[in-house]
## 1
Amino acid sequence: MLPLESPRPSPFILALPKAELHLHLEGTIDPATLLELRKKHGKVSTLAEVEQLYQYKDFAGFLMAFKAVTEDLQTPADYELVIYGLMQKLKAENVLHAEVYVSVGVNLWRKQDFAAIFEGLERGRERGERDFGVSLLWIFDAVRQFGAEKAKDVVELAIRYKGRGVVGFGIGGDEAKAGPELFREVYAYAADNGLRLTAHAGESAGPDSVWGALNLHAERIGHGLTASHDAELVEELSRRQIPVEICITSNLRTGVCSAIAEHPVRRYFDQGIMVTLNSDDPAMFGTTLAGEYQQAQDVFGFTDEHLRELARNSFEASFLPTEKKLRFLNLFDSVAARS
């Protein structure tokens, strides 16, 4: 499946202050950057060969493509290059704050020197913050099919670096191969050590996966697509105002949602769920955050006022410290009042 062109966002959407809460660092690497990384490491490739990696037919194929892209992230300088480039793109879309997943579980599986990698990430983040004024926090991501013990290793690293921009912990990967109940102790340990909690759930598995994430005390749900199959769950998400990180284009490109008309984003919004829009793996899906907003308007009839609400949700649902969150919300309200 080839990434398609994202809708061209309107001036209103581009000017709208936004935060992104579901964004995988590795999935922001576009083919040109991947080719640059390969040349740097002495791997002979053409752009056409690299672009072939971004073609897949289903969710399992996407996971394999994602794994292939990460193979060319090898040195701290690679990570610095990628995060700095990402922050430049965020600035162009008026994304003021992002919470970025790093696949630490993959780093450990590859036996990479994570301490050195983290220094590269931080150099990129600090340069990006200085040059573009973008706020960024890290969420350390474990691969659920690697099991609970490996996930706890990721939590230990998140705790170690908590004072340096690491704010949370989550699990991603193949829901069918490792249900949330396996990670109860890991999540409790993370919470006891002051980490914020999120979980991919209801993307490629049914609503039970979302219920399981709530039982882990996840504070946000990544995707939550299949929650729509369970009216009681939708009511629970709405009542508790659990933010759901919606990724429309991602769900279509991975095939977990068969047609855009079937996507529940508008129903969720109308049912009172706290929806946020996100790009997930924008380079691999041919989208941008602003493009997701435009798609929400074009396909699902979200008005400008609705989009303001979604954008405000993105700051409200963030894991920012209270004082900084309030500053962003006040800034958002002042800008939104003029637009």
## 2
Amino acid sequence: MKVTVTSRHLKNSKDSEKIKSYALKKANRIERYVKSEKDPSELRFILSSEKFRDTAEISVSCGNIKAISSVETNDMYAAIDNAVDTIVKQLKKQTEKKTKEKRRTGAKTKEDVIESNPPLDIENNYLTDLKIHKLPPKPMSIDEASLQLKVSDANFVAFKNSESGLMNVIYISRRGQKILIEP
């Protein structure tokens, strides 16, 4: 993180150096909330003094995180402390928003990952976008499959026929008729 401290109109150079070193010490507190290894970041202190007013302005920019604070008091050290507190509050708020957004989307399950990245069929060199649905393990009669079709929101039910032991499909046609497909 690049830290710059600029002082304007401070009374004497000795005080100026002490105040600059104090500001650099307080910069460590701000650096905790900024991830400078990912994005180039910059922290600027502008310290000025006019008559009886001491002003500390702090600006932070790191990627898409930006925060600015300006505090005016009678004491420069108090102004720096208050400005750093304000910046820390702003940075906490911005980082909490990001973590809440990540939590809302949630961690992806294996099914979500498979759907977003369909597996590659190496033999044929094309992507397969199949979704696998498991059938109930117990065989059903045609009447049970018909009831299952009524209960579910699907347009068809594939089932193992308990009478013949073969796979059957029952579906609702566009006209609203139930149609049974047998092998």
## 3
Amino acid sequence: MTARIGVLNISDRASAGVYEDTPGQACMALLKEWLTTPFETDYKVVPDEQAVIEAELKRMADESGCCLVVTTGGTGPAPRDVTPEATVAVCEKLLPGFGEQMRSVSLRYVPTAILSRQTAGVRGRCLIVNLPGRPKAIRENLEAVFPAIPYCIDLIGGPRLETNQEVMPVFRPKAG
């Protein structure tokens, strides 16, 4: 069975065609680099509108059957940054450790990482992870949390995701 992964870029300007969706493309490149499990991508760019983001997260998790949805953008303190609110609204369980780890890693690079509000949570059999909106920060943040993502997906009943252990080692507890 082929896994499905959602990539959702939240950006008023990219959704209006003002500029290219480089954050979403950066996520796609990392997933292709790290995963050895065959997967299909459900990819979308939407504006910074909470109702639209919520609807898309629900669609990707419930209808499209994504085991993982990564969002890019909309995680700062600006008035239109509502990605974390949308994520919290659609998730049954929150996983605050994801945001804590991403902020911790980002603080090594920029003092403004404390302004980031990324979070993660579970909806059904789907893990939703908020990432920042810049490709460099997306790599830094996703590298920091991805080692736990396949096991999390195992725990929530999703498909088994395998990675190229040389470029993205993941952790699964030893049986027994």
